[in-house]
Amino acid sequence: MATATPSQRSSRSLATAQPTKRMSLSDAATSGKKLPSRVVFHGQAGIGKTSFAAWAPSPLFLLTPGETGLHTLIDSGILPPVPSIEVPAWDDLMDLIAELTETDHPHKTLVLDVVDGAEKLGNAHVCAVAYNNDWSESGFEGYQRGYRTMANTVWKELLAALDKLREVKRLGIILLAHTGVGNFNNPEGHDYNRWLPTMNKEAWQLTLGWADMVLMGKREVVTTKDRADRKAKGAGVDERVIITEWSAVADAKNRHNLPPEISMGSSGKEAWANFIAAIKTGREGANNA
């Protein structure tokens, strides 16, 4: 008998068990589950995504290929030692999440650094399994078919696995993402550019809907423009801020009554402290409304 691959082991078929009790309106609940948040934090290079997440409660970082920022920050003394695992392939990522869900450990936050790197692992996995490693237009790349296949299969499995980890072990989930300039197809007027995670549209839209919070780190830059100038000039950087609400500039959202912007201060520790303070203030404001 053939041995199941890690991918096959991670796939779960729907059970057909019969319900033991018929549902009724008396089952309606009025309280939440008090689960930790699912956070996506995207931002420009060097904005402080990794140092922000490193101050979350008892974090474990899963590092996708090429992500060395955490190690550099620890080596330079900017961050204290933080546990991390380098993840080379999709099956490894899914197996690690399953192990975190099924075993005892001290971690309270899972940080995926970066989620667009995980998307690349998923694309490579799907290309190998479904398209015989054919990246050409006749295979994975043709008509975006490979990206759609990935989003609708293994990416949904990843988000479901993270949800299970969150519910079973009460772990907070932070997905870090690189940001690039992308075109926004505006249904009400001219298209324009926005800051967007460097992910394919299908995977990003699923992730955007899944998250409780999508935060965007950016630098507030003051510009000046004289009459003789054809373009505005950067006059300096005011501060780093976290954007918490959708705008014409970037994708962002929150379900915590956060202010539109949160200062990141001068360090990851300060940025995290400001973020937690904003959550507490938002909760108090909602309770008093």
In terms of topology, how is this protein built?
Layout: H1 6-10, E1 38-43, H2 49-53, E2 59-63, H3 69-75, E3 84-86, H4 90-102, E4 109-113, H5 115-130, H6 145-169, E5 172-184, E6 192-197, H7 201-210, E7 213-224, E8 233-243, E9 253-254, E10 261-263, H8 268-288
Parallel strand pairs: 1-5, 1-7, 2-3, 2-4, 4-5
Antiparallel strand pairs: 5-6, 7-8, 7-9, 8-10
Helix pairs in contact: 4-6, 5-6, 6-7
- Strand fraction equals 15-25%
Structural class: alpha/beta
| Total DSSP helices | 8
The main pleated sheet reads as: 10 strands, mixed
The CATH class turns out to be Alpha Beta
Per CATH, the architecture is 3-Layer(aba) Sandwich
Q: How would you spell out the order of helices and strands?
A: HEHEHEHEHHEEHEEEEH
Question: Would you mind describing this structure in some detail?
Answer:
The structure is a single chain. The protein is globular. Strands 1, 2, 3, 4, 5, 6, 7, 8, 9 and 10 form a 10-stranded mixed beta sheet that branches. It has a single domain (35-219, 234-288), classed as 3-Layer(aba) Sandwich (Rossmann fold). The chain has 8 helices and 10 strands. The model is unreliable at 1-15 (pLDDT under 50). The N and C termini lie far apart (62 Å). Helix 5 crosses helix 6 (145-169) and helix 6 runs parallel beside helix 7. 35% of the residues lie in helices and 23% in strands.
